[in-house]
């Protein structure tokens, strides 16, 4: 097995979502940042206070801070 390289994940500046490709799958934005901090997994946005605070309406993986 080859050693696994740490991949720098990017975050959408528009909606804070962690993006795997070159564009955000939710809002279609390619305004991505690799300078971010904090990792949040939202499973049930309707019952999550932190999701409400960040304006998250869909489940997924998000960054808390994006520069
Ligand atoms: Zn987005």
Describe this structure in words.
The protein has 67 residues and is mostly beta strands. The chain has one domain (10-66): Single Sheet (Rubrerythrin, domain 2). Helices cover 9% and strands 31% of the residues. A 3-stranded antiparallel β-sheet has the order 2-1-3, with no helix packed on it. A two-stranded antiparallel ribbon has the order 4-5. The chain is globular, with a radius of gyration of 13 Å. The chain binds zinc ion. Zinc ion binds next to loops. Zinc ion (ZN) binds at residues 12, 14-15, 17, 24, 26-27, 29.
Task: Map the helices and strands.
Elements: E1 10-12, E2 18-19, E3 32-33, E4 36-42, H1 49-54, E5 60-66
Antiparallel strand pairs: 1-2, 1-3, 4-5
Bound molecules: zinc ion.
Zinc ion binds at residues 12, 14-15, 17, 24, 26-27, 29.
């Amino acid at each position: 097995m080859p050693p696994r390289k740490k991949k720098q994940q990017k975050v959408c500046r528009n909606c804070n979502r962690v993006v795997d490709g070159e564009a955000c799958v939710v809002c279609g934005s390619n305004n991505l940042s690799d300078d971010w901090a904090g990792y949040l997994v939202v499973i049930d946005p309707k019952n999550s206070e932190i999701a409400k605070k960040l304006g998250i309406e869909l489940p997924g993986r998000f960054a808390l801070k994006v520069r």
